[in-house]
Amino acid sequence: MTLFHLSPAVSDALANKRPVVALESTIITHGMPWPQNLEVARKVEATVRAGGAEPATIAVIDGQLCIGLDDDQLTALAQARGVAKLSRADMAVCMAEGRTGATTVAATMIAANLASIQIFATGGIGGVHKGAEASFDISADLHELAQTAVTVVAAGAKAILDLPKTLEVLETLGVPVIAYGQDQLPAFWSRAAGLRAPLRMDTPAAIARAHKMRQALGLPGGQLIANPIPESAEIPRSVLAPVIAQATRDAEEHGITGKALTPYLLQRIFELTEGRSLDANIALVLNNARLGAAIACEMVKD
Ligand code: PSU
Ligand code: MN
Protein backbone atom coordinates (compact mmCIF):
# COMPACT_ATOMS: atom_id res chain seq x y z
CA MET A 1 0.00 0.00 0.00
CA THR A 2 1.46 3.37 -0.94
CA LEU A 3 0.54 5.74 1.80
CA PHE A 4 0.88 8.98 -0.13
CA HIS A 5 1.51 10.24 -3.63
CA LEU A 6 4.17 12.84 -4.35
CA SER A 7 3.85 15.05 -7.42
CA PRO A 8 6.85 14.73 -9.77
CA ALA A 9 8.06 18.24 -8.86
CA VAL A 10 7.86 17.64 -5.10
CA SER A 11 9.41 14.21 -5.43
CA ASP A 12 12.31 15.66 -7.41
CA ALA A 13 12.86 18.50 -4.94
CA LEU A 14 12.87 16.15 -1.94
CA ALA A 15 15.19 13.66 -3.66
CA ASN A 16 17.64 16.47 -4.39
CA LYS A 17 17.33 18.03 -0.94
CA ARG A 18 15.93 21.24 -2.36
CA PRO A 19 13.63 23.34 -0.14
CA VAL A 20 9.95 22.41 -0.06
CA VAL A 21 7.06 24.26 1.61
CA ALA A 22 3.84 22.42 2.44
CA LEU A 23 0.52 24.21 1.86
CA GLU A 24 -2.94 23.29 3.15
CA SER A 25 -6.13 22.90 1.13
CA THR A 26 -8.89 23.73 3.64
CA ILE A 27 -8.11 27.38 3.06
CA ILE A 28 -9.03 26.71 -0.59
CA THR A 29 -12.24 24.73 0.00
CA HIS A 30 -13.53 26.28 3.23
CA GLY A 31 -11.54 29.46 3.80
CA MET A 32 -12.13 31.52 0.67
CA PRO A 33 -14.89 31.88 -1.92
CA TRP A 34 -14.60 30.82 -5.56
CA PRO A 35 -12.92 32.06 -7.74
CA GLN A 36 -10.51 33.95 -5.46
CA ASN A 37 -9.65 30.65 -3.76
CA LEU A 38 -8.13 29.26 -6.96
CA GLU A 39 -6.34 32.51 -7.78
CA VAL A 40 -4.86 32.61 -4.30
CA ALA A 41 -3.86 28.94 -4.35
CA ARG A 42 -1.95 29.55 -7.57
CA LYS A 43 -0.41 32.79 -6.32
CA VAL A 44 0.74 31.16 -3.10
CA GLU A 45 2.46 28.42 -5.09
CA ALA A 46 4.07 31.02 -7.38
CA THR A 47 5.25 32.99 -4.34
CA VAL A 48 6.90 29.91 -2.84
CA ARG A 49 8.63 29.22 -6.17
CA ALA A 50 9.77 32.85 -6.44
CA GLY A 51 11.28 32.39 -2.97
CA GLY A 52 13.38 29.50 -4.23
CA ALA A 53 11.35 26.59 -2.82
CA GLU A 54 8.95 24.00 -4.23
CA PRO A 55 5.31 24.29 -3.09
CA ALA A 56 3.51 21.11 -1.99
CA THR A 57 -0.21 21.68 -1.67
CA ILE A 58 -1.76 18.76 0.19
CA ALA A 59 -5.22 17.16 -0.12
CA VAL A 60 -6.91 13.76 -0.14
CA ILE A 61 -8.23 13.11 -3.64
CA ASP A 62 -10.34 9.99 -4.25
CA GLY A 63 -8.78 8.39 -1.22
CA GLN A 64 -5.21 9.22 -2.15
CA LEU A 65 -3.14 11.49 0.06
CA CYS A 66 -1.62 13.81 -2.54
CA ILE A 67 1.43 15.90 -1.67
CA GLY A 68 1.85 18.40 -4.49
CA LEU A 69 -1.15 19.03 -6.76
CA ASP A 70 -1.17 19.83 -10.46
CA ASP A 71 -3.26 22.68 -11.80
CA ASP A 72 -6.18 20.42 -12.77
CA GLN A 73 -6.34 19.00 -9.26
CA LEU A 74 -6.12 22.47 -7.75
CA THR A 75 -8.90 23.73 -10.01
CA ALA A 76 -11.17 20.76 -9.28
CA LEU A 77 -10.68 21.18 -5.55
CA ALA A 78 -11.36 24.93 -5.68
CA GLN A 79 -14.64 24.35 -7.56
CA ALA A 80 -15.85 21.28 -5.70
CA ARG A 81 -18.74 21.55 -3.29
CA GLY A 82 -19.23 19.58 -0.10
CA VAL A 83 -15.57 18.59 0.22
CA ALA A 84 -14.80 17.17 3.67
CA LYS A 85 -12.65 19.23 6.03
CA LEU A 86 -10.06 16.81 7.35
CA SER A 87 -8.22 16.96 10.61
CA ARG A 88 -6.33 14.26 12.57
CA ALA A 89 -9.60 12.52 13.47
CA ASP A 90 -10.98 11.99 9.98
CA MET A 91 -8.13 11.82 7.46
CA ALA A 92 -7.74 8.03 7.64
CA VAL A 93 -11.48 7.40 7.29
CA CYS A 94 -11.64 9.65 4.21
CA MET A 95 -8.72 7.77 2.64
CA ALA A 96 -10.12 4.35 3.53
CA GLU A 97 -13.42 5.21 1.88
CA GLY A 98 -11.81 6.62 -1.26
CA ARG A 99 -13.30 10.05 -0.77
CA THR A 100 -11.96 13.57 -1.30
CA GLY A 101 -11.12 15.95 1.50
CA ALA A 102 -9.19 19.13 2.17
CA THR A 103 -6.53 19.11 4.87
CA THR A 104 -6.61 21.54 7.78
CA VAL A 105 -3.45 22.69 9.51
CA ALA A 106 -3.42 19.52 11.66
CA ALA A 107 -3.89 17.11 8.75
CA THR A 108 -1.44 19.02 6.53
CA MET A 109 1.20 18.77 9.28
CA ILE A 110 0.69 15.00 9.51
CA ALA A 111 1.05 14.62 5.74
CA ALA A 112 4.04 16.97 5.46
CA ASN A 113 5.81 15.10 8.25
CA LEU A 114 5.22 11.75 6.50
CA ALA A 115 6.99 13.16 3.44
CA SER A 116 9.77 14.76 5.52
CA ILE A 117 8.65 18.29 4.67
CA GLN A 118 9.44 20.42 7.69
CA ILE A 119 8.00 23.80 6.78
CA PHE A 120 4.37 24.66 6.16
CA ALA A 121 2.87 28.07 5.35
CA THR A 122 -0.79 28.98 5.78
CA GLY A 123 -3.08 31.85 6.77
CA GLY A 124 -4.14 31.25 10.34
CA ILE A 125 -4.25 28.25 12.64
CA GLY A 126 -7.26 27.05 14.58
CA GLY A 127 -7.26 27.74 18.31
CA VAL A 128 -9.44 28.10 21.37
CA HIS A 129 -12.81 29.52 20.38
CA LYS A 130 -14.51 32.25 22.36
CA GLY A 131 -16.84 30.59 24.85
CA ALA A 132 -14.70 27.43 24.91
CA GLU A 133 -15.34 27.17 28.66
CA ALA A 134 -18.86 26.10 27.67
CA SER A 135 -18.40 24.63 24.18
CA PHE A 136 -14.99 22.93 24.71
CA ASP A 137 -14.17 24.00 21.13
CA ILE A 138 -10.38 23.84 20.92
CA SER A 139 -8.87 23.18 17.50
CA ALA A 140 -6.95 19.96 16.96
CA ASP A 141 -4.32 22.20 15.31
CA LEU A 142 -2.95 23.05 18.76
CA HIS A 143 -2.40 19.44 19.78
CA GLU A 144 -0.86 18.72 16.38
CA LEU A 145 1.68 21.48 16.91
CA ALA A 146 2.59 19.72 20.14
CA GLN A 147 3.31 16.37 18.54
CA THR A 148 4.29 16.76 14.88
CA ALA A 149 7.67 18.25 13.98
CA VAL A 150 6.67 20.79 11.37
CA THR A 151 7.30 24.54 11.65
CA VAL A 152 4.08 26.34 10.74
CA VAL A 153 4.11 29.91 9.45
CA ALA A 154 0.79 31.67 10.11
CA ALA A 155 -0.33 35.24 10.72
CA GLY A 156 -1.11 34.40 14.32
CA ALA A 157 -4.40 32.94 15.41
CA LYS A 158 -7.52 34.45 13.97
CA ALA A 159 -9.12 37.24 15.95
CA ILE A 160 -12.36 35.21 15.97
CA LEU A 161 -10.64 33.09 18.61
CA ASP A 162 -9.90 33.67 22.25
CA LEU A 163 -6.25 34.65 21.83
CA PRO A 164 -5.17 34.67 25.49
CA LYS A 165 -6.63 31.16 25.98
CA THR A 166 -5.03 29.99 22.74
CA LEU A 167 -1.64 31.17 24.00
CA GLU A 168 -2.20 29.44 27.35
CA VAL A 169 -3.02 26.12 25.69
CA LEU A 170 0.01 26.37 23.41
CA GLU A 171 2.21 27.06 26.41
CA THR A 172 0.76 24.10 28.29
CA LEU A 173 1.41 21.90 25.28
CA GLY A 174 5.00 23.11 24.98
CA VAL A 175 4.61 24.77 21.60
CA PRO A 176 6.96 27.70 20.92
CA VAL A 177 4.98 30.69 19.69
CA ILE A 178 7.45 32.94 17.90
CA ALA A 179 6.50 36.39 16.60
CA TYR A 180 8.48 37.29 13.53
CA GLY A 181 10.25 40.65 13.70
CA GLN A 182 8.16 42.19 16.49
CA ASP A 183 7.34 41.74 20.18
CA GLN A 184 3.56 41.78 19.81
CA LEU A 185 1.53 38.71 18.90
CA PRO A 186 0.09 39.28 15.41
CA ALA A 187 -3.69 38.79 15.21
CA PHE A 188 -4.32 37.68 11.64
CA TRP A 189 -6.10 40.70 10.08
CA SER A 190 -4.22 43.10 12.39
CA ARG A 191 -0.52 43.33 13.18
CA ALA A 192 -1.07 43.39 16.93
CA ALA A 193 -3.48 41.71 19.34
CA GLY A 194 -2.54 43.78 22.35
CA LEU A 195 -0.70 40.73 23.63
CA ARG A 196 3.00 40.13 23.88
CA ALA A 197 4.22 37.07 22.02
CA PRO A 198 6.05 34.55 24.22
CA LEU A 199 9.04 34.48 21.85
CA ARG A 200 10.47 36.62 19.05
CA MET A 201 12.83 35.84 16.18
CA ASP A 202 14.06 38.14 13.44
CA THR A 203 15.56 35.95 10.75
CA PRO A 204 14.62 32.83 8.76
CA ALA A 205 18.05 31.41 9.63
CA ALA A 206 17.35 31.65 13.36
CA ILE A 207 13.95 29.98 12.92
CA ALA A 208 15.53 27.12 10.95
CA ARG A 209 18.18 26.71 13.66
CA ALA A 210 15.55 26.57 16.40
CA HIS A 211 13.62 23.92 14.47
CA LYS A 212 16.74 21.77 14.20
CA MET A 213 17.57 22.37 17.85
CA ARG A 214 14.18 21.00 18.94
CA GLN A 215 14.85 17.87 16.95
CA ALA A 216 18.35 17.51 18.34
CA LEU A 217 16.88 17.75 21.83
CA GLY A 218 14.43 14.99 20.97
CA LEU A 219 11.43 17.24 21.55
CA PRO A 220 8.36 16.24 19.60
CA GLY A 221 6.19 18.87 17.98
CA GLY A 222 6.71 21.91 15.84
CA GLN A 223 6.98 25.66 16.12
CA LEU A 224 4.36 28.29 15.42
CA ILE A 225 5.79 31.29 13.61
CA ALA A 226 3.41 34.24 13.87
CA ASN A 227 4.16 36.52 10.94
CA PRO A 228 2.42 39.92 11.05
CA ILE A 229 0.26 40.92 8.09
CA PRO A 230 1.91 43.62 5.91
CA GLU A 231 1.06 47.08 7.19
CA SER A 232 -0.55 48.16 3.93
CA ALA A 233 -3.09 45.32 4.16
CA GLU A 234 -4.05 45.27 7.83
CA ILE A 235 -7.54 45.99 9.12
CA PRO A 236 -7.42 47.90 12.41
CA ARG A 237 -8.79 46.05 15.42
CA SER A 238 -11.26 48.84 16.05
CA VAL A 239 -12.89 48.12 12.69
CA LEU A 240 -12.84 44.38 13.11
CA ALA A 241 -13.94 43.98 16.73
CA PRO A 242 -17.64 44.83 16.17
CA VAL A 243 -17.69 42.70 13.00
CA ILE A 244 -16.31 39.70 14.86
CA ALA A 245 -18.80 40.24 17.67
CA GLN A 246 -21.65 40.33 15.15
CA ALA A 247 -20.42 37.21 13.32
CA THR A 248 -20.06 35.35 16.63
CA ARG A 249 -23.61 36.30 17.65
CA ASP A 250 -24.92 35.16 14.24
CA ALA A 251 -23.17 31.81 14.63
CA GLU A 252 -24.76 31.33 18.04
CA GLU A 253 -28.19 32.30 16.77
CA HIS A 254 -27.94 29.77 13.93
CA GLY A 255 -26.55 27.06 16.20
CA ILE A 256 -23.31 26.73 14.22
CA THR A 257 -20.78 24.61 16.11
CA GLY A 258 -17.87 22.20 15.61
CA LYS A 259 -16.13 21.99 12.25
CA ALA A 260 -18.62 24.33 10.63
CA LEU A 261 -17.85 27.22 12.97
CA THR A 262 -14.55 28.51 11.53
CA PRO A 263 -15.74 28.48 7.88
CA TYR A 264 -19.01 30.14 8.93
CA LEU A 265 -17.26 32.94 10.81
CA LEU A 266 -14.81 33.58 7.96
CA GLN A 267 -17.65 33.79 5.43
CA ARG A 268 -19.75 36.03 7.68
CA ILE A 269 -16.84 38.40 8.31
CA PHE A 270 -16.23 38.48 4.54
CA GLU A 271 -19.84 39.60 4.04
CA LEU A 272 -19.83 42.10 6.88
CA THR A 273 -16.60 43.75 5.70
CA GLU A 274 -17.75 43.69 2.06
CA GLY A 275 -14.77 41.65 1.00
CA ARG A 276 -12.14 43.63 2.87
CA SER A 277 -11.34 40.69 5.15
CA LEU A 278 -10.59 38.56 2.09
CA ASP A 279 -8.14 41.10 0.66
CA ALA A 280 -6.31 41.12 3.98
CA ASN A 281 -6.43 37.33 4.15
CA ILE A 282 -4.85 37.06 0.70
CA ALA A 283 -2.09 39.54 1.56
CA LEU A 284 -1.16 37.70 4.74
CA VAL A 285 -1.14 34.26 3.12
CA LEU A 286 1.23 35.47 0.41
CA ASN A 287 3.40 37.10 3.06
CA ASN A 288 3.54 33.79 4.93
CA ALA A 289 4.40 31.90 1.75
CA ARG A 290 7.39 34.24 1.29
CA LEU A 291 8.63 33.68 4.83
CA GLY A 292 7.98 29.93 4.59
CA ALA A 293 10.13 29.73 1.47
CA ALA A 294 12.92 31.70 3.13
CA ILE A 295 12.89 29.38 6.16
CA ALA A 296 12.82 26.30 3.91
CA CYS A 297 15.88 27.63 2.06
CA GLU A 298 17.74 28.00 5.38
CA MET A 299 16.60 24.56 6.52
CA VAL A 300 18.36 22.71 3.72
CA LYS A 301 21.71 24.35 4.52
CA ASP A 302 23.93 22.34 6.86
N1 PSU B 1 -7.30 30.13 8.51
C1 PSU B 1 -7.85 30.73 7.43
N2 PSU B 1 -8.73 30.03 6.71
C2 PSU B 1 -9.03 28.73 7.00
C3 PSU B 1 -8.43 28.10 8.14
C4 PSU B 1 -7.56 28.85 8.85
O1 PSU B 1 -7.58 31.87 7.14
O2 PSU B 1 -9.81 28.14 6.28
C5 PSU B 1 -8.69 26.65 8.42
C6 PSU B 1 -7.36 25.91 8.61
O3 PSU B 1 -7.37 24.77 7.78
C7 PSU B 1 -7.36 25.51 10.07
C8 PSU B 1 -8.83 25.31 10.30
O4 PSU B 1 -6.60 24.36 10.32
O5 PSU B 1 -9.42 26.42 9.62
C9 PSU B 1 -9.19 25.27 11.76
O6 PSU B 1 -10.46 24.73 11.89
P1 PSU B 1 -11.04 24.35 13.34
O7 PSU B 1 -11.15 25.66 14.05
O8 PSU B 1 -12.37 23.70 13.04
O9 PSU B 1 -10.06 23.39 13.95
MN1 MN C 1 -13.29 23.22 16.49
Please identify the structural class as seen in this structure: alpha/beta
How many distinct beta strands? 11
Q: Which small molecules are bound?
A: pseudouridine-5'-monophosphate, manganese (II) ion
CATH class: Alpha Beta
Task: Give structural notes.
The protein is of the alpha/beta class. The chain has one domain (4-299): Indigoidine synthase fold (3-Layer(aba) Sandwich). 47% of the residues lie in helices and 14% in strands. Strands 1, 2, 3, 4, 5, 6, 7, 8, 9, 10 and 11 form an eleven-stranded mixed sheet that branches. Helix 3 runs antiparallel to helix 4, helix 3 (36-50) runs parallel beside helix 13 and helix 11 (237-253) crosses helix 12. The structure holds pseudouridine-5'-monophosphate and manganese (II) ion. Pseudouridine-5'-monophosphate (PSU) is lined by residues 24, 26-27, 30-31, 104-105, 123-126, 139-141, 259, 262, 266, 281.
How do you describe this structure in short?
The chain is an alpha/beta fold and 302 residues long. The protein contains 13 helices and eleven strands. Helix 3 (36-50) runs antiparallel to helix 4 and helix 3 (36-50) runs parallel beside helix 13.
Which helices and strands appear, and what pairs or packs with what?
Layout: E1 4-6, H1 8-15, E2 20-23, H2 26-31, H3 36-50, E3 54-61, E4 64-67, H4 71-79, E5 84-86, H5 91-96, E6 101-103, H6 105-114, E7 119-121, H7 132-135, H8 140-147, E8 151-154, H9 163-172, E9 177-180, E10 199-201, H10 204-216, E11 223-226, H11 237-253, H12 261-272, H13 276-299
Parallel strand pairs: 1-4, 2-3, 2-7, 5-6, 7-8, 8-11, 9-10, 9-11
Antiparallel strand pairs: 3-4, 3-6
Helix pairs in contact: 3-4, 3-13, 6-8, 10-13, 11-12
The structure holds pseudouridine-5'-monophosphate and manganese (II) ion (MN).
